[in-house]
Amino acid sequence: MNLLANDVFTGQPIAIEIVDAVARVQPASIADPECYISPAWCDIQVNGFGGFDANAADTQPADITGLVRRLWQDGVGRCLPTVITQSAAHIQHCLRAIATACEADAAVRASIVGIHLEGPYLSPLEGARGAHPPEHIRRPEWDEFLRFQDAAQGGIRLVTLAPEVLGAIAFIGKLVQAGIVVAIGHSLATTDEVRAAVDAGATLSTHLGNGAPAMLPRHPNLIWDQLAEDRLFASAIFDGHHLPASVMRVLLRAKGIDKTILTSDAVALAHMPPGIYERQVGGKVELSSSGRLSVYGTPYLAGSASSLKDCIENAMTMAGCTLAQACQMVTLNPAALLELPDAPESFTVFRWGGGPRLQVIATVVDGHVVWQAQ
């Protein structure tokens, strides 16, 4: 197959030749006006997708492989499987499953650019902790983290924690010294605590605007404090349910495109058929035809059921971004946050005709076509 695509950032025509599932690119003189190529989309927070769960008590390496392969279909060639708050044994089991999946499959290993550990060092307070089980939230302990990192075979690259938890600031310093990116999330930190976390080396706000109580002081509060902190990137869930369009626009204006990262924060029910489901964590939930996942019988969200592609589309249709800006927030920005090496042979090819939807044509990882539309 031969494609003539436009570089999403420069507009330069690019010829893509695919032979026996190997893709090669070179400059071209013309391009299909609706075909685009960008670096591989990167989702820094994905708990599950399409029925595959990175956090189930019985998660196996095959589940992680299935998760990554399912993400490829939606253009995500790089990701950080996210392990959330649970018992130490449960967390270690999930981390080992991810590490083993990487060992067994070179393409999966190339796609998983790290593991995101979200918790267990979070605020135990209602609202701030979100869906994280309170019985497993605890203070940071360096020896425990080293056991987690050992189970992950060194794969943990990002840790989300609450800086107000006792010992968190010193813990942030140790993580940064060890080369781990630190994020503020599921927190009720004060202005001084946010500043102390950033001074210690935190560089990200995890899903800013969520993971906080519904009612906060008018000002100051931790959302304003993180928006105003220029040293922080902000990840945000543009699924159309976690943040209204007005908040999306304000967040982008405050942080700027260069400091914003789109993430799906998807759970295992993402892109599953609508219906009522029973989950290991969170109990009975309802997935509507609109993609909203809520605690059954309530208006409360039970996680994100959207893909990163959905978030890119919403960035354009709801937040007024250009295609290049939306793609920057899922490619260049996560790479800058995580200090990822350039990967010119990993890219996403997609079609966009100016409407609300993108169509993924091919996902390429390390020069190999890992998924291709029929």
Characteristics:
alpha/beta, TIM Barrel, 374 residues, 21 strands, 8-stranded parallel β-sheet
Task: State the gist of this model.
Helices cover about 30% and strands about 25% of the residues. The protein has about 375 residues and is α/β, with parallel strands linked by helices.
Per-chain topology:
Blueprint: E1 2-7, E2 13-19, E3 22-27, E4 35-39, E5 41-46, E6 48-49, E7 52-53, H1 61-72, E8 76-84, H2 88-104, H3 106-111, E9 115-118, H4 142-151, E10 156-161, H5 168-177, E11 181-184, H6 191-200, E12 204-205, H7 222-228, E13 233-236, H8 245-255, E14 260-262, E15 275-279, E16 283-287, E17 292-295, E18 301-304, H9 308-317, H10 323-328, H11 332-338, E19 347-351, E20 359-365, E21 368-372
Parallel strand pairs: 1-4, 5-8, 8-9, 9-10, 10-11, 11-12, 12-13, 13-14
Antiparallel strand pairs: 1-2, 2-3, 4-19, 6-7, 15-16, 16-17, 17-18, 19-20, 20-21
